[in-house]
Design brief:
By secondary structure, the protein is an alpha+beta fold. It is built from one helix and four strands; from the N terminus they run ββαββ. Strands 1-3-4-2 form a four-stranded mixed beta sheet. The longest helix has 16 residues.
Length: about 100
């Protein structure tokens, strides 16, 4: 699972966005962040994603529990074969504007 704190992954194209997920840790102490991240990865895999972007983790100081969240996406490398779906709809061709003369 690819994880990024940014909203993009260098060298990869986001093919599909599957949604925002969150997960809490099941353990306490130093492994709380790892536990939350692992739970988040499991949820992402269940949705069919292979990456998480915008990954964040908060540690609750009083309880010692962690809360992780991010956006699950499907990515492919830019050198991979054509994706199953278009990356975006093509933009219409820009037409040059005709100059207009203003009366003074």
């Amino acid at each position: 699972m690819i994880m990024s704190t940014t909203n993009a992954i260098e060298g990869m194209n986001i093919i599909k966005t599957l949604g925002v997920v969150d997960a809490k840790s099941t353990m306490f102490a130093s492994s709380a962040t790892d536990s939350a991240r692992n739970n988040l990865e499991e949820k992402a895999e269940q949705l069919g994603g292979n990456a998480i972007i915008g990954y964040k983790v908060d540690l609750e100081p009083i309880t010692g529990r962690a809360h992780a969240y991010g956006t699950v996406v499907v990515v492919k490398g830019r050198g991979d074969t054509e994706p199953d779906m278009p990356l975006s709809s093509p933009l219409p061709a820009l037409q040059p504007r005709k100059p207009t003369l203003q009366k003074q």
